[in-house]
Write a structure and sequence with these properties.
Elements lengths: L2 H11 L14 H10 L6 H16 L8 H12 L2
Helix pairs in contact: 1-2, 2-3, 3-4
Organism: Methylomusa anaerophila
Pfam families: DUF1871
InterPro entries: Apc36109-like_dom_sf, DUF1871
Length: 81
């Protein structure tokens, strides 16, 4: 999996709306976790669930307020290589 590809998608999504006030590597840890989860994610739903869990756990659901459906769309983009 191309880290640049995943980074571009996550940074474009900017799920916590931080990038206008934060360094460009703000989501570096989450991106690494997503790339690592790709080995276990066999479907779009599995990857979407992993993305949702990663951001929920790292930022809390009071900060990460995106809907699961958005994670599905992000997962589809990531898997479109």
């Amino acid at each position: 999996m191309n880290k640049i590809h995943v980074s571009q998608i996550i940074n474009e999504w900017d799920p916590i709306a931080l990038l206008s006030h934060a360094p460009t590597d703000e989501y570096e840890i989450e991106i690494k976790l997503i790339i690592d989860s790709l080995e276990k994610s066999r479907t779009t739903d599995e990857l979407a669930n992993n993305i949702y869990e990663i951001f929920s756990k790292r930022f809390g659901t009071d900060v990460f307020t995106k809907q699961y459906q958005e994670c599905i769309e992000v997962a589809k983009k990531i898997l479109r290589i």
